Amino acid sequence: MKPNMANMMKQAQKMQADLAKAQAELASETVEASVGGGAVKVVMRGDMTVESVRIEPSAVDPDDVGMLEDLIAAAFNEAARQAQELQARKMQAVTGPLGGLGIPGLM
Known about the structure:
Blueprint: H1 5-26, E1 30-35, E2 40-45, E3 50-55, H2 65-95
Antiparallel strand pairs: 1-2, 2-3
Helix pairs in contact: 1-2
């Protein structure tokens, strides 16, 4: 059975359009990471852009700047992890089984 090249091209173009749409949606969806009992919150968009950082005044201790730095790093790392999971879910919905093939440009 010979593959229908016109049909394959049509499917590839649809997938490309779906990927572009998913990437645009990622730019508007957000994840929020909160650490230290809510002392530091980071809101990040699905395209990995930081939307906001909130620091509770009680987390600011001039005698322990290191703790605040650790909280901020932890919040950013958690937000990035969540944003990457969001990206993976969004792209998996578009690429289906092709997403795991490591094809450049699909993720």
